[in-house]
Write a structure and sequence with these properties.
This is Nicotinate phosphoribosyltransferase. By secondary structure, this protein is of the alpha/beta class. It contains 17 helices and 22 strands. The chain folds into 2 domains: 27-160 and 397-548, nicotinate phosphoribosyltransferase, CATH 3.20.140; 217-382, TIM Barrel (Alpha-Beta Barrel). Helix 5 packs across helix 6 (182-195) and helix 5 runs parallel beside helix 13 (369-378).
C-alpha cells in the first residue's frame, strides 16, 4: 500500500516474516471489532499508547526495536478472501454478513502512527508508539504490534547490555540460531542483536535478509573427522602473491611444529600433539588460507591445539598469508586466553614473525553478562566473544511486557485504573520530550498534554512523577528533543518519517547509549532514569482518576 501524505509514492514491502498478516492477532480483537461494528462505534476515533512498565534484566534502560516491521505491516494491511472466510468460520454464526464486507474494505489509510525512532533508548511509561485511527482497525493492530515490538526490544536490550559489559573494543558475535525459539526467533534475534551492538552473526539467512556481517569457522566435528595427515590428498598451496607454489604444505606445517617443539622459549611445554587435529587444521588452511581460524580445544588446548595452530599459521606466513586466530570453546577461558597469548608472543619473538603475538582470540561456551563480567575481573586476552543461547533466548527474562492502552476516544481522555499503581495508565493524547542537562546527558523524559506549550531550552519547567505527589523537580534544559515522530501519517498530511537501514539504526543505538550516564548503565544497582509529566498533566491525571474511581460505602 502507498503511504498518504507528501511521500505517498513510496511503497513499502510487507513484513520480513510472511506469517505477519492481519490474522496474526488474538481472537478477541475480532470479537471486539464485531461488537464495535454492531454498535456503530467502529469508526470512532481512538488513540492508543504502546509502552512498557518496567525495564528488563534488572536494568534501567531499554532499546526500542521492531518499528519498521510494524510500519511494513500497516502499509500492507488488507484481508484476503481466504482470511475473511476463516474469520467467518471462527466467529459465531450469528455475526452478520455486513461485518465481513466491512473487513474487506479495511486498510490503514486512516491510521496515524507516531513513534520513537527505532534504536532509541527508552524508559517505562513513556509511549514507544502512539496509534490513532478508527477504534476497530487500531484494535486489530494491537496484538501484532505488541508481538513485533516486545521480543525485538527485549533482544536488542539484551544485546546492548552484553556490549556494555564486554566493552567497546571487543568483537561480539551472535551464534544463537541453533538454540533460538524456532526459525523466526533465530532470524529476529540475529537482526536485533546486531541492532543492539553486536558485530556479526553466524546466521546465513539473517545475513542475506538484513546485510549483517557473517562470521564462522568450523566445529569439533570437523576436527574429529580426520584421522591423520595421510588423508590429505592435495597438499599443494599457491603463495598469496601467486609467484610460487608449496607442493607439500603438510610437510611445511610439520617442519614448523618440530621447530616450535624444540625452540628455546617453548621447549618442554608440549610433547607429541594430536596428529588428526593437525590434519584438520592443515585441511582447513588449504581450503581457506586467507581466513584460517581454528577451534583449538577438541583435545588439549595448550599441549595440542595451540602448537598445531601455530605450526599451520607459520606455514601460511611463509607463503604470504596471515592466519585469523583461534577459538576457545571450553575450559578456563581467562587462563587459556592468557596462556595462548604468551605462546603467540613467544613465537613472534623467537621466529621474528611480526604481529603474530596479536593473533585474535575468540571465546565461546555458553557466555552471558555474568561470565563476561567475571572474565573482565579475572583479566583475559580474549578479542572476540561468540554468544548464543543467553542472548537470543533472553534466558534471564522471558518477556518485556509491553502493553497497548486506550488513552482517548472521540477526543475524550480515558484512564485504566488498578489497585496496583504501576498499572494505572496515563490518559489523553500526549507529546513526549527528553530534557538534556549541561553535560549532554538526558536528565528526564517528560510527557505533556497535546496542546500544552512544549518545554524550551533555558526555561524552568516543573517535572512531576505521574503518581507520587512528593516526587517533583524543576529542570532548566540545555537541549530539548521531541521523542515521537510521524512514521505513518494516515490522512494528517504530515510527511512519513524515513525507515533507515539497519546499520544506521544500530549506530543510533550505540550513539544513544553513549549519551547515557554511567550510573544508569551499571549492572549493580543502577540509578533509575526519571520519567515525569508536566504539572498540568499531573493535575488532569488525578482529576480523571478521582472522577472514574467508584466511591465505596461503609455500613
Amino acid at each position: 500500500m502507498e503511504a498518504n501524505g507528501p511521500n505517498a509514492s513510496k511503497v513499502l514491502d510487507g513484513p520480513t516474516n510472511p506469517m505477519v498478516t492481519p490474522l496474526l492477532t488474538d481472537l478477541y480483537q475480532f470479537t471486539m471489532a464485531y461488537a464495535y461494528w454492531k454498535a456503530g462505534k467502529h469508526n470512532e476515533q481512538a488513540v492508543f499508547d504502546l509502552y512498557f512498565r518496567k525495564n528488563p534484566f534488572g536494568g534501567e534502560y531499554t532499546v526500542f526495536a521492531g518499528l519498521e516491521e510494524c510500519i511494513r505491516l500497516i502499509a500492507n494491511f488488507r484481508f484476503t478472501e481466504d482470511e475473511i472466510a476463516f474469520v467467518r468460520q471462527s466467529l459465531p454464526s450469528s455475526c452478520e454478513d455486513g461485518f465481513y464486507d466491512y473487513l474487506r474494505g479495511i486498510n490503514c489509510s486512516d491510521v496515524e502512527v507516531y513513534a520513537a525512532s527505532e534504536g532509541s533508548v527508552v524508559f517505562p511509561k513513556v509511549p514507544l508508539m502512539r496509534v490513532e485511527g478508527p477504534v476497530a482497525v487500531v484494535q486489530l493492530l494491537e496484538t501484532p504490534f505488541l508481538n513485533l515490538i516486545n521480543y525485538a526490544s527485549l533482544v536488542a536490550t539484551n544485546a546492548a547490555r552484553h556490549r556494555f559489559v564486554a566493552g567497546k573494543s571487543k568483537l561480539l558475535l551472535e551464534f544463537g540460531l541453533r538454540r533460538a525459539q524456532g526459525p523466526d526467533g533465530g532470524v529476529g534475534a540475529s537482526k536485533y542483536c546486531y541492532l543492539g551492538g553486536f558485530d556479526a552473526t553466524s546466521n546465513v539467512a539473517a545475513g542475506k535478509l538484513f546485510g549483517i556481517p557473517l562470521r564462522g569457522t568450523h566445529s569439533h566435528a570437523f576436527v574429529s573427522s580426520f584421522m591423520s595427515p595421510d588423508e590429505i590428498v592435495d597438499k599443494s598451496l599457491r603463495s598469496k602473491d601467486g609467484s610460487t607454489t608449496c607442493e607439500d604444505f603438510v610437510n611445511l606445517a610439520q617442519t614448523w611444529l618440530n621447530k616450535i617443539k624444540w625452540s628455546t622459549s617453548l621447549h618442554g611445554l608440549f610433547g607429541e600433539t594430536n596428529q588428526s587435529e593437525l590434519a584438520a587444521f592443515i585441511s582447513y588452511a588449504l581450503a581457506f588460507p586467507n581466513d584460517f581460524l581454528a577451534l583449538v580445544d577438541t583435545y588439549d588446548v595448550m599441549r595440542s591445539g595451540i602448537p598445531n595452530f601455530c605450526a599451520v599459521a607459520l606455514g601460511l606466513n611463509d607463503l604470504g598469508y596471515k592466519a585469523g586466530g583461534i577459538r576457545l570453546d571450553s575450559g578456563d577461558l581467562a587462563y587459556l586466553s592468557l596462556e595462548s597469548r604468551k605462546f603467540f608472543l613467544a613465537i613472534e619473538k623467537e621466529f621474528e614473525v611480526s604481529g603474530f603475538g596479536k593473533m585474535s582470540i575468540t571465546a565461546s561456551n555458553d557466555l552471558n553478562e555474568e561470565t563476561l563480567d567475571a572474565l573482565n575481573k579475572q583479566g583475559h586476552e580474549v578479542d572476540a566473544f561468540g554468544i548464543g543461547t543467553n542472548v537470543v533466548t533472553c534466558y534471564s527474562q522471558a518477556a518485556l511486557g509491553c502493553v497497548f492502552k486506550l488513552v482517548e476516544i472521540n477526543n475524550q481522555p480515558r484512564i485504566k485504573l488498578s489497585e496496583d499503581v504501576s498499572k494505572v495508565s496515563i490518559p489523553c493524547k500526549k507529546r513526549c520530550f527528553r530534557l538534556f542537562g549541561k553535560e549532554g546527558y538526558g536528565l528526564v523524559d517528560i510527557m505533556t498534554g497535546e496542546n500544552e506549550p512544549p518545554p524550551k531550552v533555558g526555561e524552568r519547567i516543573l517535572c512531576r512523577h505521574p503518581f507520587s505527589e512528593s516526587k517533583r523537580a524543576y529542570v532548566v534544559p540545555q537541549r530539548v528533543e521531541e521523542l515521537l515522530k510521524c512514521y505513518w501519517p494516515g490522512n494528517s498530511g504530515l510527511k512519513r518519517g524515513d525507515l533507515p537501514p539497519l546499520k544506521e539504526i544500530r549506530q543510533r543505538c550505540i550513539n544513544q547509549l553513549e549519551q547515557m550516564r554511567s550510573d544508569h548503565m551499571r549492572r549493580l544497582n543502577p540509578t533509575p532514569y526519571k520519567v515525569s509529566v508536566s504539572a498540568k498533566l499531573y493535575d488532569f491525571i488525578h482529576f480523571l482518576w478521582l472522577n472514574e474511581a467508584p466511591v465505596g460505602e461503609l455500613e
